[in-house]
Specification:
Elements lengths: L1 E4 L4 E4 L7 E6 L10 H19 L3 E6 L6 H10 L3 H18 L15 H13 L3 E3 L5 E3 L15 H8 L16 E6 L14 E3 L3 H11 L3 E7 L3 H16 L4 E7 L2 E3 L2 E2 L10 H7 L2 H9 L7 E2 L2 H27 L7 H22 L4 H19 L5 H17 L11 H17 L3 H13 L2 E6 L2 E6 L1
Helix pairs in contact: 1-9, 2-3, 4-6, 4-7, 6-7, 9-10, 10-12, 10-13, 11-12, 11-13, 12-13, 14-15
The structure holds adenosine monophosphate (AMP) and zinc ion.
The site of zinc ion (ZN) has 3 residues, from loops.
Length: 469
């Protein structure tokens, strides 16, 4: 298997630290709101990487954190007048629901930053003891970038150039740094913020230290793969390398994988630009499997532009696969136990070749776009062979093969039969969205559709209520 390693900027053969095992760490979201579909891209991509390793027989220890202490969480908590824990716990739960909808399996461990403070204090102390960090007069602890000669090796930046570049940048509240490129490991608390006591000051951790600490605690000092979106290469992952390698005296991760951005109108989808859709919003219109299928239709290192057309294309592509499986299910009911004839044997051979094609694409740095193309060829082969075939073995093998390849992509071929409740809730949400967009014709249409289903709507002060007629 070949993986593109950001560290070497090349595809490299994957050699695990321990035969048959993969230790991987994926930087997770900051939980202060619903996740947007840009955040969903690394979740879907690296869940697929995990599934493919498992398909190849590896045992994967997959760790992904929730950043639950951060300026944005604190700000939101202050706005709502609650503790930051209330905010982070709420959005961790919502994030888990979205993940389940997208068939993103829970990680082996989902550590939370606030639960890992002792490990952070220990690593920061080690960095101070080894001369890689210093305490400023206000109690802030900084990592001294010039003490780590390899700084810049992931982002391929030159340390000297960076040092001069940084001189221009001033970060407010960080005036006591020896050098502008130094970054915070621990900082003093401000009024109303969550804080912990430490040898340096009552305060809270900087952002980067949590991942170095959690990765070490749950996976060991050296790991196989560290992953995240490409915006994390610098400074986050560069800083993680500096912290972990300076503290542990060992190389940190052997392979660094980064997904490209999910864009909208060719700009990165982000909370700060306001150009985002939450996963929850998408779920009102589509089965989230469609979103997953859309994401995997591009190679993870290619930028992907979100559009209604591409989502519709993903929806019909997925439908083609599900329909092929439906046909196989139907056929199995009338199929007979008999030897395969020449035509079926030839088709079975062709299916094997397509599985090999699929695997070759996935072995080549997880090229899901080409893997999906092979899957479509398999679906076409299944459909064309099925006409005039009633051999039980052919039908069963074909179904098993398609389902297995779908499972690697995190696509289930079981149709979800919607309950009446779910259908009604979905329509109500769509009607609300239509009203918000001042599309009253569509809103009225939905009201009459619901009335045909025997559902009566009441617009109340608390929102829309419904009952059976
Ligand atoms: P954040 O909560 O901003 O730390 O982001 C969580 C994860 O989502 C990180 O791996 C980010 O790199 C990734 N991410 C954020 N926005 C996008 C985007 N538009 N496209 C792809 N990945 C993104
Ligand atoms: Zn991280």
């Amino acid at each position: 298997m070949k993986i593109f390693n950001t560290l070497s900027k090349r595809k490299e053969e994957f050699v695990p630290l321990e035969p048959g095992k993969v230790r991987m760490y994926v930087c997770g979201p900051t939980v202060y709101n619903y996740i947007h579909i840009g955040n969903a891209r690394p979740m879907i991509v690296f869940d697929t990487v995990r599934r493919y390793f498992e398909y190849k027989g590896y045992e994967v220890n997959y760790v992904s954190n929730f950043t639950d202490v951060d300026d944005k969480i604190i700000k939101k908590a202050m706005e709502e007048g609650v503790d930051s824990e209330v905010i982070s716990e709420r959005y961790i739960e919502e994030c888990k629901k979205d993940m389940a909808g997208m068939n993103v399996r829970p990680a082996t461990t989902h550590p939370k930053a606030t639960q890992e403070i002792p490990g952070m204090l220990e690593m920061i102390q080690t960095l101070i003891d080894k001369g890689h960090a210093y305490v400023a007069k206000d109690g802030t602890v900084y990592f001294q970038v010039s003490s780590f000669r390899e700084y810049g090796k992931l982002s391929h930046k030159n340390l000297d150039e960076m040092m001069s570049g940084f001189r221009e940048i001033k970060v407010t509240g960080e005036d006591n740094k020896e050098n502008p490129s130094d970054f915070v490991l621990w900082k003093p608390k401000k009024e109303g913020e969550p804080s912990w006591s430490s040898p340096w000051c009552e305060g809270r951790p900087g952002w980067h230290i949590e991942c170095s600490v959690m990765s070490k605690r749950y996976l060991g000092e050296q790991i196989d793969i560290h992953a995240g979106g490409e915006d994390l290469i610098f400074p986050h992952h560069e800083n993680e390398i500096a912290q972990s390698e300076a503290a542990n005296g060992k190389p940190f991760a052997n392979y660094w994988m980064h997904n490209a951005f999910l864009n909208i109108d060719n700009r990165k989808m982000s909370k700060s630009l306001g150009n985002f859709f939450t996963v929850r919003e998408i779920s009102e219109k589509y089965d989230l499997q469609v979103l997953r299928f859309f994401m995997l239709s591009a190679h993870y290192r290619s930028p992907l532009n979100f559009s209604a057309e591409l989502m519709e294309a993903a929806k019909s592509g997925l439908e083609r696969i599900l329909t092929a499986v439906d046909r196989l299910k139907d056929a199995s009911e009338t199929a007979r136990d008999r030897e395969l004839n020449a035509r079926e044997l030839a088709a079975a051979d062709e299916a094997k070749a397509l599985v090999a094609k699929y695997e070759a694409a996935m072995d080549d740095d997880f090229n899901t776009a080409d893997a999906i193309a092979a899957l479509f060829e398999l679906v076409k082969l299944s459909n064309s062979t099925l006409t005039g075939t009633d051999a039980k073995k052919f039908v069963a093998d074909m179904r098993e093969t398609i389902e297995k390849l779908c499972d690697v992509l995190g696509i289930t071929t079981e149709r979800k039969t919607e309950s009446l409740e779910d259908a009604v809730e979905a329509l109500i949400a769509e009607r609300q969205a239509a009203r918000k967009a001042r599309n009253f014709a569509r809103a009225d249409e939905i009201r009459s559709q619901l009335s045909d289903m025997g559902i009566i709507l009441e617009d109340t002060r608390e929102g829309v209520k419904w009952k059976r007629a």
